[in-house]
Amino acid sequence: MRVIVFLAEGFEETEALCPVDVMRRAGLDVVTAGVGGEYIKSSHGVVVKADSDLEDIPDDEVFSAAFCPGGMPGSVNLSQSWKVNKILVSTAQTGIVAAICAAPAVVLAPLGLLKGKNATCFPGCETYAPDMVFSSEGIVVDGNIVTGKSAGWSFDLGLKLVEMLKGKESSESVRSAIYYKE
User: Fold this and answer.
1) Distance between CA atoms of 95 and 88, rounded to whole angstroms?
2) Which pLDDT belongs to residue 181?
3) CA–CA separation, 129 vs 38, rounded Å?
4) How far is CA 16 from CA 70, 130, 160, in A?
5) pTM of the entire structure?
6) Helices 168-177 & 13-25, crossing angle to 10 degrees?
7) In what order do the strands lie in the sheet with 29-35?
8) Cα dist. 167→21, 93, 162, 172, 175 in Å?
9) Sequence spans of domains, the chain
10) CA-to-CA distance for 57 and 172, rounded, in angstroms?
């Protein structure tokens, strides 16, 4: 199972790298894809080298899951990428689409991926999707759409994706190995 995680200038590093770490610990094939190059600066000035430039990802590649971390202006930058939008819409047809913090409202909602779905986002970001009513919950799963509220929910989101892709036993194994919420 291959998972793509998008990194755009201004992404929130905890929201991106914590779920990547959790999914890789579970043995998932996770590729971080930089929007605009391989070296991407986070919202807090941390430069991360992505596994691949997004433009080097084949247009016809199919992913089991696609994930958008939040952060500003990272979420806006993701929303403005034609290729990110194409992969999200394509993945939603057969796989899981996940987003956290600002990204559910800024990236997923305008694509119509949250239409008729329950979702959560960072408080205040609801203004980017005025037709949506967002939950105040930390993690919301509605069908194949997974949304997280904020950086504080990054481990939970990563573990939920592992559970959905590899089963509860794999998720519990990672949770136990990192002594998370004993």
Assistant:
1) 9
2) 86
3) 30
4) 8, 25, 14
5) 0.97
6) 110
7) 52-53, 29-35, 2-8, 65-68, 96-100, 145-148, 139-142
8) 17, 20, 7, 9, 13
9) 2-177
10) 31
CB-side neighbour CA atoms (13 Å) of 142? 16
DSSP state of 104: I
Q: How many helices (H) and strands (E) does the chain have?
A: 6, 9
Q: Write down the CATH superfamily of domain 2-177.
A: Class I glutamine amidotransferase (GATase) domain (3.40.50.880)
The label of the residue with tokens 């590649």 reads 61
Are 13 and 101 in contact by the 8 Å Cβ rule? The answer is: no
Predicted confidence at residue 64, as pLDDT, reads 98
Which of these, 22, 17, 33, 106, lies nearest to 66 by C-alpha position? 33
Q: pLDDT (tens digit, 9 = 90+) per residue, 38-50? A: 999 999 999 999 9
Strand partners, 139: 148
Q: What amino acid occupies position 81? A: S
The tens place of each residue's pLDDT in the chain, 182 residues long, gives 999 999 999 999 999 999 999 999 999 999 999 999 999 999 999 999 999 999 999 999 999 999 999 999 999 999 999 999 999 999 999 999 999 999 999 999 999 999 999 999 999 999 999 999 999 999 999 999 999 999 999 999 999 999 999 999 999 999 999 999 86
Residues in the chain: 182
